[in-house]
Amino acid sequence: MARDNTNRPPHEFGQWAALQGNTNVRPFSDFGPVFTADDTATIQAAVDWSSSSGIPVGGDGTYPIDGVVIKDRARVICPGPRGNTAGVGTTFVPKSGGTAKGLFLLDTGPVQRVVLSGFGLDATGGANAGQHGIYFLAMPIFIAGAWQGGLWSSVWNDLMVQGFTGEQIWLHASGDEVAHPFSAPHQFGRMTGVVALTASTTRRALRLTGQVGQFNYDAACQFDGALGGGASRLIGTENVLIERGVDRTTFVQDSDRAPYTHNFFGSTFQSNTLAARIERATNINFIGAHFEECPRGVKFDVQAYGNSVRSCDFQNVGQDAHGTIPGRVIEATGGSETSVLVDGNIFVGPVDTHFAQSGGAQLITGAGNRHSGDTLRTSGLTKGAIAAAATITTQSFNYVYVNGSATAVNTIASDLLPGEVLVLRANGADLLLGASGNIELGAYQAPLRVPQNGSAILIRNDLSNVWLLAAVGGQNSLRAPVVFINASNSPYTVVPGSGTVNVDCTSGNVVVNLPANTLAPSGARLTVRRFDSSGNSCTINGATGGAVALTRVLQAIDFERDAIVGSGAWALVGGYNLPLAQPLIPAGSNSYLKFTKTVGGGVATQFDGSDGITLAVDADTANTASKVVARDASGNFAAHDVTVNKVIGLLQGNADTATKAAKLTGAEVTATATLDTTKYVNVTIDVAGTPTTYKMLIGT
Q: What pLDDT score does 665 carry?
């Protein structure tokens, strides 16, 4: 059909004519009168025709409407929003006395491949009370044996929605499962250059309710309070609300179906009490977004898990400038399932609290968060004290207080991944770590005692699915400090752990007490060192309880001087290498060394190490049985037989006959020498029974 432009309003020329030529868009005026007090019927006819034909419709000008229904495959493409400049662009405004819930509504059943582009919805000139700008409620119909509905695969481009006393944009998917047990989601959407400005202290620029998922909001999207900043900013509710399902009639929350997978890339949020609140929704991500002039930034509330705020810019966000609400930039609250990862963000301007966490929620900070010239302030990121038990649950916390208890912790249930670090701090009392669950203590003996206010550092390992102990630190930890003790602070009780106790007895006697488990866990070492030469005593008291306590205390203690006096029934336990400077025998016990001194009266003496004693040896120079052989004053001694391997030097004797026996190549050799009356010595050598006599001439 030929187009007749002779009676068309001037708004449909200029920019509009160029758009028609490039996109084959059919004008609204082809479907009825426009620019009347109520253009609803004309615009609806145009949308219906676009839905059936697949051809875009549009126009240039201002169109009063009320409740136009967007249908399957409808394409409304206009040259751009009018904004605040009269005569330029396309604007839909509420007709006077309109009663529809929204200027744009959604058809029943599945509505797919919708394109909304290049226009504005503006109620600033006279809004109908409570009316929404775009209200898309998913209303399913029964198709092919199932209920189906909702908005699918939609494109939103270059739109401006402002001035409505209801929501500016509300995507309301199915969720009231009691009255309507079906699934009708809004899915697969993309918004580019969409601007929504709220004009109510109780309504939002963007509201997502129920099963709304898989939407991307590209750069140039803006969800704000009223235009203007500073003192003129709108103080009311949040700009963006992402929430679980609510009933379509009463609007009471009645479903756990909630939005999922929404990515705000470079979007802007400004001028309201709270920029965005996420309730029960999952995988909501703010990436490279800009936030400005809001006392609070983003709040993740009630089972909102798997979310993130990354590489965003916060300008003057997080200060309680109005005295009624706490200034917070990013907050996680509402239960243990709420979680958000926060990293790489930049903060500018005054901030009360950057990151806040409460109610068991988990705000996990990553690297790269910076506030130039200021300190990042947090609240509640450290897990509050939990009770020690055989199994403790630490969620995604990296730092957890655990109340000390006699019950050893053997298993840690955590959401942290392999390679991540968990710090357990002993709160109120010593904390015990066992090794019968998924905790590996390495060389330390179970149970490992983490002293009060000390911390155990563990790393998750995926090779064996255990927590590996990396270190124990903090006050009174395994490596106890060097302690100097003198009479003024005696007695002194050694704290559990290893270290050095330096004892100075110059000014008086000193007592050192060693309680049970002084060296727990095994592998620790304690040195008790006395470094003075006074006559005063250093008494070291062991824990009562018998040999068991002694075993724990003595397995690696160096006593470098003086005696050890036990307050309990101590006994030496074998199997330990005790590098003691002198014997360790407690006074008052019956574990004494007993010996007899035969030289000096033979008095039986009990030795307890209290002083030095020189022992005489029971020996004799004569060849006496059961005696130690002793030299006489000349260094000689008597013996019966002497067996030697080798004789070096001259053999001397005064007998007429000398006999020497030796083994030469296995034969017994006997030599006999006699002096005859002549000049000769007759030497007879008998080798193996064969004697041979030789004459040797004696010289004069």
A: 47
Residue with token string 């609806």: 44
Specify the residue for token string 């002993």: 426
Is the previous residue joined to 94 through a cis bond, with omega within 30 degrees of 0? no
Look at the block and give the residue holding tokens 């206009």.
78
Strand pairing category for 91-94 and 57-58: unpaired
- Phi-psi sector, 530: left (phi>0), alpha (psi -120 to 50), beta: beta
Q: Which residues contact 264 (CB under 8 A, 6 or more apart)?
A: 217, 221, 285, 286, 287, 289
8 Å CB contact between 400 and 383: yes
pLDDT in tens, 136-177: 999 888 887 777 899 999 999 999 999 999 999 999 997 655
Structure token pair of residue 315: 């300008």
**Which amino acid is present at 464?**
S
Closest CA to 217 of 255, 189, 247, 181: 189
DSSP lists the bridge partners of residue 81 as 90
Residue 639, token pair as written in the block: 């013996």
Counted residue by residue, the chain has a size of: 700
Residue identified by tokens 């903060």 is: 347
Reduce the DSSP state of residue 51 to 3 states and report it. helix
* Residue 533 DSSP one-character state: -
Q: Which two tokens stand for residue 575?
A: 């199997």
CA angle (388, 419, 390) in 5-degree steps: 15
Amino acid present at 123: A
The structure tokens listed for 170 are 């509300």
In what side-by-side order are the strands of the sheet with 510-514? 492-493, 510-514, 538-542
- Residue 487 is encoded by which pair of tokens? 């009479």
User: Whole-model pTM?
Assistant: 0.66
Beta strands in 24-131 (DSSP E): 26-27, 57-58, 62-65, 68-70, 75-77, 91-94, 102-106, 110-112, 115-122
From CA 337, how far away is CA 127, in angstroms rounded?
40
Q: Taking CA 273 as the corner, what is the angle to CA 271 and CA 379, rounded to the nearest 5 degrees? A: 120
Alpha-carbon distance of 138 to 109, in angstroms, equals 8
Strands 448-450 and 431-433: antiparallel
